[in-house]
Amino acid sequence: MPKQQRRLVAIVSMDVAGFSRLIHENEKHTVGVITGVFEERILPATASHGGEVFKTMGDGILIEFASPVAAVEMAAAFQQETRATPVLDASGRPMQARIGIVLADVLVVGNDRFGEGVNLAVRLQEFAPPGGITISRGIKEYLDGKTELEFASLGYQKVKSIDDPQEIWVWPPDQRAKPVKPGLGNPGRPSIVILPFDNLSSDPEQNYFADGMTEELTATLSRIRDFLVIARNTAFTYKGRSSDVRQISQELGVSYVLEGSVRKSGDRLRVTAQLVAADTGAHIWSDTFEGATAEVFDLQDMIARQVAGAVYPSIRAAEVERAQRKRPDNLEAYDLVMQALPQLWAHRMDANAEAIRLLERALVADPNYGLAAGLAAWAHAQQIVYNWTADAEAERKKGLHLIEIAVRNVGDDPTAMTAISSAIMLLDGNVRRGVEFVDRALSIDPNHAWAWTRRGFSHVYAGESELALSAFGRAISLSPRDPFAFHTYIGIGLAHFAAQNAPEAVHWVRRALDLRPGMTWPYRDLAVYLAHTGEHDQARLALAEFTYLRPTMTLESMADDLRFMSPPLLRRYIEGLRLAGLPTAIAEQHP
């Protein structure tokens, strides 16, 4: 029986447009021309770009490339040559090919390749215009800054025999196709961004209260399945900026913008909100709401209902009510969680410690607050995973205790479920149990960008690189300007490393470092990946950046901290640290 192995590759599927008609008109001429093109153009172009043809099927050809960039360059060069030097059919008309390219985790058996990715490449090719190329989201991510070709998004499309809609990008031969912005792929599904509400109170410390209004409205509306809602992290990049809504429409591809303000004075609250058509700037709806601060959740629900009705009249009030989460019993606890969120998203050692302090206070005020417990458990997990603590076991013990509090009180809050999922995987190493929570989060809120990122990590930990890259791509499309995107890039890098593509892993971790200058923990990944590419001097320098603030790190402690990785992935990761020079014991650092 042939030896079997898996690898992550770019798959190119090519066929001849109108093949059945051409065969019917003149079979002998058509077969002769296609055979000539295959031998004289396709095979040399494939070889020069490092590819390998592994299957031919009449007019169809499947080719494997180790590099997605090389796959796209070969496809574009072939299409451009065919335009410049046409191949004619029996009637003297130019013959054209359609090409689809995907990133796929394939099973290699002898000279053949198997897997869903092979089928997807063929199906994607069917969306390509004659003389054009279509690519998957995974391929598009690779091309950033590496090609001058301009691809236009066709949005999410239902692909035959594939369960989930796929975002497809096209290179049209005449370059006249207009790009479709994120969120506009399905014109029957309204897309919206909730901009950070302005704080009009005299006390700047009340900013978090306005942020909470934005947070809750985003969470409620994103759970209505007829909406596509841009994630809160991208929305908050507009905080404090004076931006024209038409510019926002162009940048985010949304059809509606919700903006407003909050004024809190004593125990009284006034909220003003307005809904704007993003492409024209026309006001669709606006209103002012007043009440006691204790009624803040009622005000948020009222606004959500009116926005939903104005954007999509067919949405019934009951649908909005189903999207409203169980709120905390204690308003002080809610305030403290809102204050903790920006500290958590800052993703820095000092900020993470402050988030833990705030969340502990929230749990004192409301011991049964599931969201606070889940976020606190995740914060303790970060202390370990990013080596921000000298006492990993103490952090683990606290985090595991918080997980059980959160599980008992999570309700149907997708953010809490995502935090619980992350904490379970990172603290307990139980990826299967963690996946149950993140999948529940996505079943409730399919627009939850952070949940898609965590789903990507769960696939990486299990060694499912192709699925991981698809989930990370979904997260990026839901939050295209996310300051937390560096974390997604870290995941993409680990996915490539798991797929035995260390050079590409190096590229992605460096992109993450470019987004967050001053971070040191990603140098751990960089050291591992560089070591596996044979760049040992650079790997040692990267490891030195990581261990400068963490002198007690050893191979044993790292293996324990990263116990959530699958055994094969963990072994390769630890081997990279060994090659980069991390000692097996502290004594080796201080002989």
From TrEMBL:
Name a biological process GO annotation. cAMP biosynthetic process
InterPro entries documented for this protein: A/G_cyclase (IPR001054), Adenylyl/Guanylyl_Cyclase_3/4 (IPR050697), Nucleotide_cyclase (IPR029787), TPR-like_helical_dom_sf (IPR011990), TPR_rpt (IPR019734)
Q: Could you confirm whether the keyword Ligase appears in this record?
A: no
Pfam families noted in UniProt: Guanylate_cyc
Name the keywords, alphabetized: TPR repeat
Limits of the Guanylate cyclase domain: 10-125
PROSITE patterns linked: GUANYLATE_CYCLASE_2, TPR
Q: What molecular functions are annotated in GO for this chain?
A: adenylate cyclase activity
- Key word Chloroplast present in the record? no
Q: Where are the transmembrane segments?
A: none
Q: Where are the TPR repeats?
A: 449-482, 486-519
Domain of life assignment = Bacteria
Instruction: Please identify the protein, giving its name as recorded.
Output: Adenylate/guanylate cyclase domain-containing protein
